């Protein structure tokens, strides 16, 4: 097999792609993620991180993310139980006089597996893209990687940052940009970032320093031109969709995270705006951040910016490996497009079983 951590194209079996024992140690050797970085793991983001404000965005402690056999099972209760309100209503509508109804087998809680043993790694300085059709489990995986499913029943597997389990200190170094923006529509870009900077940065920093952090993040994300424009929403005209995504990212960058996780940051953007956004993510990765992003349908020029790709199909890993190796891997096992096409489109076709 040319791709040591490629998966099965059928999606019927979850390949332990990039599993701990296969690609993990080998790939780790290529990266400067050794014990030296592990030693920093327990250090909180302390005041000193913010002292060198000019170099604020140029340094963060490297963080290698490793996830092993991440599984998420969801128990859903049937809402039509006879003792539930829907059950009562439907009984009344059907004219049933029976006050006690015995539960039917179909009324028992059902369990559904959303993620089936997903394994992989994300390295500092790189972008790991999670691809897959709608409903394949991308957001759920990102939530698991960000420690947002911790303590929830149904979530199993291991997520390690620099070889250690996710601690509060690691979670503080993690920025999570959600699929839906949660920005106040009436504030300007500058107001939002300065306000959040004043609230979120350590109290040892002066007000002037905090404002300076907000300004440096704004300029890092190319938001200078629209800094006095309100965010807006569907009723009030504000910044563009791409700028709004950048503000969401900027909001997370205020704390200079080592790990940046983004859930579909390019949704709703045209291909040029999506490409520009990925260029920004690439430049953040180059500064040592570990970037993990889900993406629905990247163009070919966006696809070639991904260092690693993880393709999900119905919660199973179809492929995990270098983005540039995906086509040759699938060709080697008998799956090739009949004409030259965007690798991302081809992978999505496979994930959709086409
Ligand atoms: N808390 C939940 N309750 C019910 N269903 C859930 C829950 N979380 C996830 N799911 C289901 O799990 C599946 C995967 O959802 P998820 O949001 O991870 O997919 P996705 O690949 O991110 O989709 P999209 O690209 O449309 O955002 C979906 O079918 C979703 O309905």
Automatic annotation (TrEMBL):
Residue spans of biased composition, Low complexity class: 33-44
Domain called ABC transporter: residue spans: 65-339
InterPro entries from the UniProt entry: AAA+_ATPase, ABC_transporter-like_ATP-bd, ABCG_dom, ABCG_transporters, P-loop_NTPase
Region (Disordered), start-end ranges: 1-49, 79-111
Family the entry assigns: Belongs to the ABC transporter superfamily. ABCG family. Eye pigment precursor importer (TC 3.A.1.204) subfamily.
Organism the protein comes from: Ficus carica (Common fig)
A Pfam family hit: ABC_tran
Keyword Cell inner membrane attributed: no
The protein, known as: ABC transporter domain-containing protein
Main subcellular location: membrane
Comp. bias regions, Polar residues: 10-25, 95-108
Keyword Ubl conjugation: no
A single MF term (Gene Ontology): ABC-type transporter activity
GO CC annotations on file: plasma membrane
Cellular localization per UniProt: Membrane
Bilayer topology: Multi-pass membrane protein
Keywords: ATP-binding, Membrane, Nucleotide-binding, Transmembrane, Transmembrane helix, Transport
Superkingdom field: Eukaryota
């Amino acid at each position: 097999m040319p791709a040591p951590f490629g998966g099965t194209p059928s999606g019927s079996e979850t390949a332990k792609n990039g599993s701990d024992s296969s690609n993990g140690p080998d790939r780790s050797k290529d990266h400067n993620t050794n014990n030296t970085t592990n030693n920093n793991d327990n250090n909180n983001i302390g005041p000193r991180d913010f002292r060198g404000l000019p170099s604020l965005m140029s340094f963060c402690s490297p963080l290698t993310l490793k996830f092993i056999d991440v599984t998420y099972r969801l128990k859903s209760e049937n809402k039509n139980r006879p003792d539930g309100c829907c059950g009562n209503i439907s009984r009344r509508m059907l004219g049933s006089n029976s006050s006690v109804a015995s539960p039917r087998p179909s009324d028992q809680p059902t369990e559904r597996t959303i993620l089936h043993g997903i394994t992989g790694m994300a390295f500092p300085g790189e972008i790991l893209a999670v691809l897959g059709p709608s409903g394949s489990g991308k957001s759920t995986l990102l939530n698991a990687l960000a420690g947002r499913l911790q303590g929830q029943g149904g979530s199993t597997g291991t997520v390690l940052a620099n070889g250690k389990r996710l601690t509060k200190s690691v979670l503080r170094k993690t920025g999570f940009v959600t699929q839906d923006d949660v920005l106040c529509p009436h504030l300007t870009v500058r107001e939002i970032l300065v306000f959040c900077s004043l609230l979120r940065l350590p109290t040892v920093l002066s007000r002037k320093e905090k404002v300076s952090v907000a300004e440096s993040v704004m300029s890092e994300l190319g938001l200078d031109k629209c800094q006095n424009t309100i965010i807006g929403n569907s009723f009030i005209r504000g910044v563009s969709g791409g700028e709004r995504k950048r503000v969401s990212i900027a909001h997370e960058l205020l704390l200079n995270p080592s790990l940046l996780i983004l859930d579909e940051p390019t949704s709703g953007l045209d291909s040029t705006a999506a490409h520009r956004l990925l260029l920004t993510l690439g430049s953040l990765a180059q500064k040592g951040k570990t970037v993990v992003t889900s993406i629905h349908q990247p163009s070919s020029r966006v696809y070639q910016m991904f260092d690693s790709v993880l393709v999900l199909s119905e919660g199973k890993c179809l492929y995990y490996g270098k983005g540039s190796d995906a086509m040759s891997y699938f060709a080697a096992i008998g799956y090739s497009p009949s004409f030259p096409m965007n690798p991302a489109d081809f992978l999505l076709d496979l994930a959709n079983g086409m």
